[in-house]
Amino acid sequence: MAKAAHVDFSAVDGHLLDGLDFCRKVYDLLDLISRESDGKSRLRLRQSKTDKRLIEELLPLARYIQARYQAGRRIKVRWLSGSQQHDAILWSSGSLVKHGGVPRKVFIEVTTSVHQNDHLRRQLLDQSGGSFGVKGIRREGKEIVSKPDVLVEARTRRISLCRYLRGSAQRVTSRIPLRPC
Prior knowledge:
Shape: globular
Number of strands: 6
């Protein structure tokens, strides 16, 4: 097996970059890992801090920037890998900023909400190539077992999802000290 490539965030860490250049560099890092013989496994299992940071922080930030970069709004980004109250600072310019449609400066904290069994789903996907999902998955001894979760009434599912998201949001916001803008 080939040696895992060292993922170096120095090209994006702490530098003020055009938003689309930032996205290109993040996707280049993803491609670097994907081309390795164990690349898919690394991305699924996220065992290293750098792989986890790439998947759970940099890629969502790149997608966020892509969704907002448009005619009338140019974005510059400074991503910071350290421990601070935010992950990135975005500066916008253009007619949307000039006419008050969007703020000039935004602090971004990337947070992902995943099911408590997501790690088992990713592990089973890596081992056997498939999983029914997070609701019907559990560990039986050393083996991971996945069974289909039958869809119940849609309203019940929506209520369950709302409760889950509300709990996730409360856990995240309780850790972040709020400061006035």
